[in-house]
Amino acid sequence: MPVYTCTAAQGTLTGESKAALAAEITRIHVAINHVPPAYVNVIFSEPPPDSVFAGGEPGAPLIVSGWVRRGHPQEEATRLALELSSAAARVTGVPEGHVMVVLQDGPARSAVEGGLVLPEPGEEKEWLARRGEFGRAS
Amino acid sequence: MPVYTCTAAQGTLTGESKAALAAEITRIHVAINHVPPAYVNVIFSEPPPDSVFAGGEPGAPLIVSGWVRRGHPQEEATRLALELSSAAARVTGVPEGHVMVVLQDGPARSAVEGGLVLPEPGEEKEWLARRGEFGRAS
Amino acid sequence: MPVYTCTAAQGTLTGESKAALAAEITRIHVAINHVPPAYVNVIFSEPPPDSVFAGGEPGAPLIVSGWVRRGHPQEEATRLALELSSAAARVTGVPEGHVMVVLQDGPARSAVEGGLVLPEPGEEKEWLARRGEFGRAS
């Protein structure tokens, strides 16, 4: 259900650190927002170094930007962002001073996965049962 | 006015299926949200396969993420998301089980196209008349 | 604190015009939203020309999409979008008729930079003091 996009200039992340970061984002999101791991999508976007700026100068940020369903308590969104930031620094070696995490939320009813409108937070169980009838890969 | 970004690992979509999906997104958005086709922007982002994960493992989702003006009725946003999901699977051959559609909205007054602040939903007509004085390519 | 993503087909922007646009976005954001320049992130995404569509046809838009903290007055967001649009056309040579600017906002408390939850608009001063103790590159 969530979609995370991680952006860093080419050369900032290795294949190994991308896999490790995807695994950590998935683990943390599952623990806090209660969806099965298979529903956590993580994409990496790696523009060339001359396409990444901070303060108008070539920069080296790692930006983790996530879309999540609206309706989770704010304190959980804050905790999610803090844990993602800390994990991103830890598994990639990028200093946490260069890590930024942004969570954007939107109405579950404006999103569709596997042909089904997403459930409101807290109503995942019935949705997953319906979803199971189709199968993730159906 | 809307901006759709379609993300799938390299090799998931052909040039033909990208053109077909852009055409379908445009057709469906025009039918439901009542803007002229020329104002529907569709971008494809195709990271290498080692940059796309679902459940912490290399994955093959097709994610269609759209920005639309806030103020459309929720049921129309839901219908738009459902029709986009179904069309995306149909024209690309990606199983709908792997398709995700997310619509995010924002205030029309926080967006500018062709030098003009976007109109609220329902106020497109006057805006388009003003816009015509400039010309799309002016 | 803000993250701007500029999207245009490969070949639309030169290295020089990307640097100039990043500098202008930074200057304008700093002037209107009162954050130090070092906190303005700008990323360029340049898909191949066959991946950019307007009206279902290959197109040539320049799309500037920004994430900003929620809570700034709407009139300032509108002014920010208008000035960014005008600057983007001026420094890149892309006709303003092809430029689109979208500002999306989200709760400051759903975002983390340098390990610290972002401040609400107007509360930057204390936050920057705390941040200084860590150092941007710490």
UniProtKB/TrEMBL annotation, chains A, B, C:
Cross-referenced SUPFAM superfamilies: Tautomerase/MIF
Coiled-coil ranges (or none): none
Domain Tautomerase cis-CaaD-like: 1-128
InterPro entries, per the entry: Cis-CaaD-like, Tautomerase/MIF_sf
Pfam families hit by this protein: Tautomerase_3
Protein name as it appears in the record: Tautomerase family protein
